[in-house]
Sequence to fold (748 residues):
Amino acid sequence: MSDRPAQSAAPRELGPTSFQDFVSTEPFPLELGGELPGLTLRYETYGTLLPDKSNAILVPHALSGDHHLAGRYQPDDPKAGWWDHFVGPGKAIDTDRFFVIGVNCIGGCRGSTGPLSIDPRTGQRFGGYFPEITLGDIVRGQRMVVRHLGITKLHAVVGGSMGGMQALLWSGDYPDEVGRIAVLAAGLSQSPMAIALNAASRACVETDPNFRGGHYVPGEGPDTGLAVGRMISHISYLSSAAFDQKFGRTRVPGAQPKDPVFWQVESYLQHQGQAFVKRFDANSWLRITRAVDRFDLTARAAAGRLFRKDGPEILAVGFSSDWLYPTSELRMVVAAATAVGGNAAYLEVVTDAGHDGFLLPDTGLSVRLHAFLG
Amino acid sequence: MSDRPAQSAAPRELGPTSFQDFVSTEPFPLELGGELPGLTLRYETYGTLLPDKSNAILVPHALSGDHHLAGRYQPDDPKAGWWDHFVGPGKAIDTDRFFVIGVNCIGGCRGSTGPLSIDPRTGQRFGGYFPEITLGDIVRGQRMVVRHLGITKLHAVVGGSMGGMQALLWSGDYPDEVGRIAVLAAGLSQSPMAIALNAASRACVETDPNFRGGHYVPGEGPDTGLAVGRMISHISYLSSAAFDQKFGRTRVPGAQPKDPVFWQVESYLQHQGQAFVKRFDANSWLRITRAVDRFDLTARAAAGRLFRKDGPEILAVGFSSDWLYPTSELRMVVAAATAVGGNAAYLEVVTDAGHDGFLLPDTGLSVRLHAFLG
Fold:
C-alpha cells in the first residue's frame, strides 16, 4: 500500500470549489491600442501546487465558458463546472497530481474585467465603451495570474475551441513557459465560414432595438437578439448526425401547424438561446466573438515563427464531425509544428457530436490526454 | 442543311420573356386544412409546345426563386432569370426543343397567391392570416397550370433544392403524368439540421418588433429580422471552401477594429440580407420555409409507396460540398427508387460551391442533364 494516489484510481468528484480574484491596478495595454485602467481576473484552482510549482496546468475556456472548470460550489448546484468530465481526481487532468487553473477571460462576464465591469475612470460600467480585445490580450492576462501564483513554467496548457487557440498562443508567445499544449477542436486561424457564423450571430444582437449601440442598461439589453444569435452558434456546435439523433423530425407534442414553435429542435434551440441570455452579456459576446474572429496564426506558422524544434510538445485533437473547426485544421497544426522539427501528434475522436464533442465524456480521449500529460 | 436546330448548337440567349397569370376562382383546399378562396399562379414559358404537347418540362423553383427561370424581360435587365445557365436555346434544358414552364409557388411573393395577395373575402391582404401550406399544395397548384396549358403528361420535372423536393412529389403523387424527374441538391426529407437553420432564420423575423405577429403593413415590416435571417440561410448555401475562396480573411478596406462590419464576408452577408428584403416578403419566407421543413417522404419511400418499377425515370444530382443537402441524401433517393425496381441514377458534381452549386454553370452537369432529358 502506498500513500500516493494510484493513477488507476476511479474518477471521483471534486469537493466544493471556490474562486478567487486577481486584481491589478496597473494599466493593461491592449494589442489593438488603448488600455484597460486595471484588471480583475477571476480564477479557480483545483488540486495542490507542488513546492517546486512544476505541476500546474492551465485550462483556458471556450467562447461561453468561464473559470469554473469542474466541481460544484455547493453540493446542490444543478451543474458541475463545464469540463468536469475531464478535470478532477483520477480524471484525464488529474487533480490528485496536478494543480489546475481556470481563468475567466478578459472581456468576459463572469467576474473578470469586461463590459459589465465599472470603469474606475468614470465610475460607470464600460458597457459599449469596452475596448476591442484579442486572444493575445486574454493570454497575457492569464499569464499575470500564473505569475501571481508563483509559477514560472506551466506543465501544460489544455484547451478546446477558443481555449485551443489560446493554447497555441501560449506555445507561440511563451514557448519557454509551457511544457506541452493540447489543442482540441481549433485551428491555426478562425476560418471565413466561422467568421460568417459569428457575423450573423452578432448581427442579431446589434439589430435588436435594445442594443442601443452597446449602451444598454444591464437587464434591459438585447436579450432577444442575443438569444437568437446564440441559436445560430449552437447549430454550428453540433453536427447533422447529432441533430438526427437528438431530435430527428420530432414535433413539439400537441403543436399545431400554425404554431411558431413546431419542431422539437426549434423548441430546443429557442430554449438554449433564452437560457444563454441569463448567463451572458451581449457586449461580452460581441467582444469575445470578434477576438476569436481576429485569431490567425497561419502566416506566423508558415514563416516558422510559431512552432520550434525545442518548443512545447503538442497534442492536436480533432473531432470527426466538427464542421466549425474541421479535423483538417488540427492536422494542419501538427503539420506546421513537425515541419520545423517540433514534437506534435494528432488524435482523432470519432464522434457524431460535432464541435461540442470536446465537452463530452470520451474514454479514448481521456486515456490519451492523461498519458500526454505524463 | 436542316431546318431542325442542331443539338450541338452553341448555347444562345433567349429573346425577351414575359409572364402570364393563371387565375382560378374555385376554392383551393389545403393539405393542412382550410382553403384558399381562389388561386392566382404567375408563370412563364419558354420555347414552343409541340402539337401533341409531349415536350413540356416543368422547373419548380427553390425557396427564394420564382417563375422567371431564364432570359430577360428587357434587354437591359441587370440579371437574367435564376437558371439562365441551364435553360435556353442550346442549353441543358434546350428551349429549341422543349417547352419549359416556371411557376411562382403558392405562398410566394412574385405574383402568385401569397401573403401579399388580397383575400377576396375580406378585401384586405392575407398578411399574417395566410394559411400554412405544404409542398404538396404547391405541386397541386403547378399541376393546375400544366393542365391549363393542355398538358396531360410532362416530359420532365427538373428542380434543385426545394424544387427537387417538388420533383419527388410529382413522381410520387402523379407518376403517370411525368416521364422523368431530375432532383438536384435535395433529399427525401428536410433534415433536422436544415430545420434548425430555418428555425433560427425564422426566429430573426418573428422577434423583429416590426413583425407584429405577421400583421405588418408592407414596407413597414420586419426588414431587419428578414435581412439577418437571410444571412443565416445564405451561409448554409455555401461551403467552407467557398468562403475561403470568395472572401478568405480579407478585411473591409479601411475598417477599424471597433467597426461593426470589419470582415469582407461580414459585409457581403449584410449586403445579401439587405438585398433580399427588397425582393421578398417576410410572411412568404415563413410560410415557405415551414412548408420545406414539413417535407418528409422517407416513410412513404420505405413503405414502397413513393417510387415504383414503371414510374418516372430519376436522375439524382448531388453536389460534393453541399452540407445542407449532403450527397448521401441524393444517393438515398436512388437507393429507394432502385429498391423497388425503379430506373434511377446518381450523378455527383464535384464542386466547392456548396448547396448553391446547382445554380452555377457546370459543363459536366449540363451535358448529363441534356442527355437525361433525351
